[in-house]
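Let's study a protein:

___
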Amino acid sequence: MESVRIHLPHELFAPAESSHFEGTIEVPVLKAGPDLYSFSAPLAWQIDVTNTGDAFLVTGTVEGDAATSCARCLEDVRFPLMGEIEGYFLIGGDEAQAPEDMDDDEFELLPEDNTIDVGALVTAALLLEVPLVPLCDDDCKGICPTCGANLNEGACGCTHEEDPDFELAKNPFAALKDYDFGN
């Protein structure tokens, strides 16, 4: 991911001041667990930076079109993605005090050069929005465990009636059908 750093102007260091920033960022690939998401065009982002007195509150959005593979049939899936950007940067270096109700991972110290890395905030916002299991359709039938054919396009021709492994692959709980639960 390209690095987009915003230098906070001197005027923003007065309490209750706010500034708006926007732009685009190249995100060639985003890795979320086993899935890789690609973006064919730069993502549009916009943020508002507000001085709260002891810190800078960063809020905004990032949006673009994502592409990945369906977890069941492996076909390409494209969908719009919009994430909420949030950040909290304490002013004052190492002497800065975080609010008592915040955990250590909920804030950062503002670097000495007074810059904010938008790229890191964009990545965090996108990771919260990508699906846990990307699917082309909620009713996706997946691929045949024997021949690999896409079952959304029709039956594959394999004979699965006599194959217990096919039933187990289709429904992993099928292995429990003959289990005596001691009733």
Summary: Helices lie at 118-129, 164-170. The chain has a mean pLDDT of 87.
